[in-house]
Amino acid sequence: METIRMTTSGAVVRYLAAQRIEVDGQAVPLFAGVFAIFGHGNVTCLGHELEQAGEALPTWRGQNEQGMALAAVAYAKANRRRRIMAATSSIGPGATNMVTAAAVAMANRMPLLLLAGDTFNSRIPDPVLQQVEHFGNPTVTVNDAFRPVVRYWDRITAPEQLVQSLPNAVNTMLDPGDCGPAFIGLPQDIQGEAYDFPARFFEEAIHEIRRPRPDTRELRRAAAALVAAERPLIVAGGGVHWSLAEDELRSFAEIHNIPVVETVAGRTSLVADHRLNCGPIGVTGCTSANAMAAEADVVLAVGTRLGDFVTGSWTVFGGGDDVQIIGLNAARFDATKHRSLPLVADAREGLTELGAALGDCRAPEEWSDRASSETSQYHAYIDKIAAPETVAAAGRSADNAEADADLPTYAQVVGVVDRAADESTYVLAAAGGFPGELVNGWRGQAVHSFDCEYGYSCMGYEISGGWGAKMALPDREVVVLVGDGSYLMMNSDLYSTVLTGHKLIVIVCDNGGYAVINRLQLAQGGVPFNNLFADSRVQQVTPVDFAAHAASMGCGAETVTSITELEAAFGRARASDRTYVIALNTHAYRWTEGGSFWEVGVPEVSASADVRAARAAMDTGKADQRVGW
Hints:
By secondary structure, the protein is α/β, with parallel strands linked by helices.
């Protein structure tokens, strides 16, 4: 057997560089590169091998380990899980910084390879710098913190283990049902240890993502349920995108005359003006989608994990336990939720075979007409609240919501992007107020034009994610919308985009703190406390000059005071050759209405009459929940 003697680190790099995947008929590198911040745990061995690899496995320097791993998640999303970025850190805080990003990938079912340095396998130098010691278990390091937030976890204690571990990690990340992040810990001494690896281990491999077909019995039961349905509804989830099934979804809906609603991850599965697209469903959803869900008798849930924001904590389907859910999903775990009829299959192939089984069966015209009527009202409402205001806003009051009356709203900001967009626009956001506003107000003209990280609802994803998305989609205009809270949490990858030439348009909306959580606090009987800066333990509310901050990192930047000014600034941002940041004050109390019930914890006993009333309302809402599996 031919062998090649090299170090563990060298073998990792050479193996990753040899992996290919077919995209649009061409074999391209599966791993587009490695985000890296070096420290003593990975610079001398893995860092050396990455430098030697050069363009065979490009290395990109991040500013924060969490940020670079979030960029890798967004990169995978933009590539619809067909290409992967790795992220490497040193031991200790560098590694634990990536735990949050791993959880983002886990919740969103995204491929992400994490390579973290570790303590010495020999233990002779212990305790090493940054080592956290466990007195009763010396095998435990901080890298064990990744175990709950990855699909695949391994620590390499001998070089030859890579021959099994790396293929297992890759196969996990490419599995349509089990897809998620993979973690490999690399002890410092093992990174530099040499081994005679089989030469065939480094041969070029071209991967294909499997497309499992449905079981014939499950297919028969699902078809029978849809044939009998009088008011069928399709819930399009992120799996539609990951399966590249947008065309099949559109064709299926049209042939069988079935209205479609979209989850956050499934947004832009259909173009917004498609006659059967009823808009987003659930807590951040719109009145049309939720009205259709309230009357549906059979729900075909395609590629969705049916999270609480989709199901309204399992109240949005008005028939309760009598509604029949069909779970078309590559993951058995998701396909069987809440007594669904499972249809375990790839979304594209499942829709194709289910459509064939249905033949010419069509939902009643009255049902699709109802969908059109409801949806036209939704669009009219969005057009109204997104219209530009006529009064310029000079600034914000620190303690009086009424004084903010003339400030632009999030809906109006989204309206600017919505009106200015074309088919090349790709919009990205995450936690805070923007998910609800964008899910409703972004009406994509092209499929797969939206990324809102709401599986893990991770503040700080926005700018780092925009960097990764632009790497994946260099020919598209990536627009990031971010609140002041998320911006202050994580903004350093603005500098990354300037350094690397990955231009973004970033709109920063300053509403004085964590305004959407303040909204939740008030809605559940609380009083303003510790969310807006004005309601926190501060000596003075000092405005942040976000444009000046962004400019200090090399971005083009400006502050505007009205929607009219924002529209003009957006044009200048488009013309810019580098990342351009536009900042403006926005209203902290005016939000897009709609949505559904959402269960949150409310005190059962309280001295506050408002809290007691909120608890009573919560108990009333829970009475409509679909209970049980």
